[in-house]
Specification:
Helix content is 18%, strand content 21%. By secondary structure, the chain is α+β, with helices and mostly antiparallel strands. The chain has two domains: 37 residues, no CATH class; 251 residues, Oxidoreductase, molybdopterin-binding domain (Sulfite Oxidase, Chain A, domain 2, Alpha-Beta Complex), CATH 3.90.420.10. Strands 1, 4, 5, 8, 9, 10, 12 and 13 form an eight-stranded mixed sheet that branches. The chain is globular, with a radius of gyration of 20 Å.
């Protein structure tokens, strides 16, 4: 038996932390895949999942949107039980467990800053009269795992234009609800609450950017950011702020939560760039949820043809 010393072990050979911590789920998925393959070979048509995931209210009038990938979608179970949402806990399974009683209705969003029509709007008024679209996007977490998710939402540009941003509006800031009674993670000072994210205004207005209200044709589950979240498919998942209650047009770059927490690790732009490693791990390869082997990480998460022009002339190692 060959035993390697620590100095002999390459970083690529080390089990990723997220896989180690979630080893029970990983083993369950692997076992289900093996069982399914065996039963399929024996002529059994399908295998039911080991865990029942509750489904929510169906969205009506959803239409297919542009830019959808044709890749295989991540199963609903994984999309709704393997989440990053620190307001409900730091574990991947914490949001599904701890957000059960979160109240997402009624909901209001305040629009302010450099615009001509500021105000506080009920969610249904904010979204009218736009048609909800389904878009199938890759979403990649900075911790080297990724999913392919059919999000349902409205192009963010269609909503923002209603409020007539002025010529001073260079950025858009987003703020999450602050409610420690409902969000137990906010009772701990792991981050500076409330959660704040931001985009440059041309990023916010890009047709790929979605204001998400659902997933898999259903109203957003609490653990996925109900009732309103951001989906920016060429950026890392932590840019996709959830439970949005504030949208502000600003002249200066917003101070975002993760950039404040770790400026050397989480840049404002947060574009998926396999050539810029995280301070503590490589980002050149990723593991798709439900798959054993890693795959090469694509520049801008595979959306370079659509968004590379936004960063023409920028040093993407400096502005990471």
């Amino acid at each position: 038996m060959l035993i390697k010393r620590p100095s002999d072990i390459l970083p690529s050979e080390i089990t990723p932390e997220e896989v180690y911590r979630d080893r029970r789920r990983f083993l369950r998925v692997s076992a289900q895949a093996t069982l399914a393959a065996g039963l399929l070979a024996a002529g059994v048509p399908g295998v039911a999942g080991a865990e029942a995931v509750p489904h929510g209210r169906r969205l009506s009038g959803v239409k297919p949107g542009p830019f959808s990938t044709t890749e295989a979608k991540t199963p609903f179970e994984d999309v709704t039980t393997y989440n990053n949402y620190y307001e409900f806990g730091t574990g991947k399974g914490d949001p599904a467990r701890n957000s059960t009683h979160f109240r997402s209705e009624p909901w209001h969003v305040t629009i302010d800053g450099e615009c001509e029509k500021p105000g506080t709007y009920a969610l249904e008024d904010l979204l009218k009269p736009h048609t909800v679209q389904e878009r199938i996007y890759r979403l990649r977490c900075v911790e080297a795992w990724s999913m392919v998710i059919p999000w349902d939402g409205i192009p963010l540009a269609e909503v923002l234009k209603r409020f007539k941003p002025t010529s001073k509006a260079k950025f858009v800031e987003f703020v999450t609800l602050y409610d420690p009674k409902q969000m137990p993670g906010q009772r701990v000072g792991i981050l500076d609450w409330p959660y704040v994210e931001g985009l440059r205004i041309d990023e916010a207005m890009h047709p790929l950017t979605l204001l998400g209200v659902g997933v898999y044709g259903e109203v957003l589950p609490n653990q996925n950011g109900a009732p309103l979240r951001l989906v920016v498919p060429w950026k890392y998942g932590f840019k996709s702020i959830k439970a949005i209650v504030g949208i502000r047009f600003t002249e200066t770059q917003p101070v975002t939560t993760w950039h404040k927490a770790g400026p050397s690790e989480y840049g404002f732009y947060s574009n998926v760039n396999p050539h810029v490693d995280h301070a503590r791990w490589t980002q050149a390869r990723e593991r798709r949820i439900g798959e054993f082997f890693k795959r090469k990480t694509l520049m801008f998460n595979g959306y370079a043809d659509q968004v590379a022009s936004l960063y023409s002339g920028m040093d993407l190692k400096k502005y990471f």
